[in-house]
Write a structure and sequence with these properties.
Shape: globular
Structural class: alpha+beta
Number of helices: 2
Distance between the termini: 32 Å
Strand order of the largest sheet: 1-2
Amino acid sequence: MSNCENCTYFIYDEDYEEYICYVDMDEDEMMRFMQSPSHECPYFRLYDEYGTVRKQN
């Protein structure tokens, strides 16, 4: 199971003053995710702050 706190799409929204998942899912995708027994996010991508630096080298 993925950990949202380590995901690239988990960002702080200043309007709501909380962290939210910034993946743009349609209704069907959201229903499949919510009904999934494992609740594993198919969009999880590990936040890698050094990824940009590696690409520059």
